[in-house]
Please model this.
Amino acid sequence: MKQAEVLAKMQEVFDGIFLEKVAAKPELSPADVEEWDSLMQISLVIAIEQKFRVRFRVGEVEAARNLGEFADLIAKRIEA
Amino acid sequence: MNDAQLKSLALSGDTAFWGYLAARSRHAESFSELFFLSTLRKKARRVATESVQPRLRLAFVGGYNLYPLHELVEHLLTIRGIECERFLGEYDNYVSEVLDSSSPLYAFKPDIAFILPNGSRCRFSGSLLDAVERQRQAAVGAAEHLLNLARTFIVRSGAAVILANLGLPGELGLGSFRSRTLGADWSFRKAVNLELGLRAPAEVQICDVEFLSARRGIAAAEDARAWYESKQLGSPDFLVDVAQELSHLIASRRQGPKKVLVLDLDHTLWGGVIAEDGIEGIELGDSSPRGEAFKSFQKYLLALSERGVLLAVCSKNDHARAIEVFEKHPEMVLRLEHFAAFKANWEPKSDNLQRIADELRLGLDSFVFADDNPAEIEIVRQFQPQVEGVLLGPDPAEFISRLQAGRHFEPRNITEEDLGRTAQYRQERRRTELAASVTDMPAYLASLEMRGTIKEFDSLDLPRIAQLIARSNQFNLTTIRRSETELQGLLARPDYLCFTMRLEDRFGDSGLISVVIAKIEGDALVVDTWLMSCRVLKRQVEDEIMNEIFRLAGAAGCAKVRGLYLPTAKNGIVAGIYEEFGFKRTEDSAARKEFELELEKYQTRLTKIRVSRRAYEAS
Model:
């Protein structure tokens, strides 16, 4: 799966979770979204794991610096 | 109502949102759902008005990261109308936070502290093959260590403590040998938890993490990644279980359990309709699966009544035919004597509920109404919104769990009075019958042969005193709530005079029915708490209590008695009581009234109660 496809599916997750409209773009980071605190982070990871049927390994998610890297991680996990 | 509908309700500022939010939040079992609801609440909060109730000061300390647990708890308390101010201890620093009285934990001045010890650190340090007695002693030691921590905190802060016990590990490592020793983590923690529960003093509530993790499944409750990444207690969904339990324990300290369960008859206590199917045709008993389920439900209700929950019937039925089932059906577990009130007629259920409340002298807010019919639940919700409705649904196999899911009848403590309550109401019915046969009041009171005992507070009575203080609303002059810890503190205060009264008569023992707390301030005895069980209203108990207040005031050298009345929505029946005794109003605002009477002006009341003992006198 390509990054763009992953981001499109992530947009669906965002629309369900964020109350405001947040566009899933590669350069987006939590600091850009007021709602995106550590509680939101936990919830987002759970929702994404369910959506893509993946389970991240310890430390992986933290290492992603923006949404693009996060999408790449998801793509890698789906293939693995 | 789906997520999208709830979201638009929240954003439109519709006040109906709050009811749906509360109902869904109370039943939420997954992190994602609870988080969604909490986010909606914060969004909707911006258009809602702030509450004026005092905020609850709630501290979280423990051997785990308490974030985001505390956010979930805050949400679940908010939907119950309890706003809180939170303190979060440092990760795994709880022992020094409690032992160091200058720590930020004490500076926060919490009302309640939640202590969550680290399970993986609670291990047996000896060998798996050590003698079991040695291992058991170590478990007792570990439990006492935690309880001492809790006690230290209570003594220093005056706050209440909710102490979590330990989740059990799901490791396969030891195989079946794990149960042949108390040295394995699995069996050692079980032993610690058992000792913890059995040894905990009344003022320490246990949050049963072991039970919660077993209920969800240990494998689903554990989450190694969440531990390594952010030192979480378990999986996100498991945090929801703990938060639900914790918020329930906290809310029940303020609101107390419900007292009365009102039941429908057809399709609730038995299958079928008695008017159509007749006594032989209804489904009840072990001969069919459905009949068995109804019988089990009745057995559960009987157990509730034996624990002190009052049962009542409120049903659209012909009275005589309904009674017949209770008297004649061989498979009925519940009999008429198990009910404190019985209304089977064609009046609206909301009216019947009011009548039951009047008969039992209990507020409708202590009622739960269970029915299989959603329309009846809706009508009651509309006309008697204080009554909590439980929809039992179409399947009798689910009735018990549906009723328990509301958690309305979970006791904090069980007292002797609880176990005998239904019998007390039965005695009350006989008193009422006697009252109806005797026309003149003094003759009726004399014929009751009442005997009273008045006694200063005694640590053995504290659980019942605390329960009355937490639950009484109607005959309660000030509704000042005090925790068991605070009450314990009063025992040692020479400037406080605190007493209880018990009442017995020819029909039986009513138990501890009144509580008075008064403080000596200069030349006045100030009564800040006076409450009484409404069951003994109009039996001259008020008169004996007032006699005792003045007797004690005299013995303490006071020249006058000052009484306090803080009006609430429910205590209107005692608004005028001080004036009835001749007190003069000295302060009169909407929120607070004060009354005063000099000792020399008080006339001791003569009553038909023989008082065999008085407070602060040797028995």
Q: What stands out?
A: The radius of gyration of chain A is 11 Å. Chain A touches chain B through 17 residues (CB under 8 Å). The mean pLDDT of chain A is 90. DSSP finds four helices and no strands in chain A.
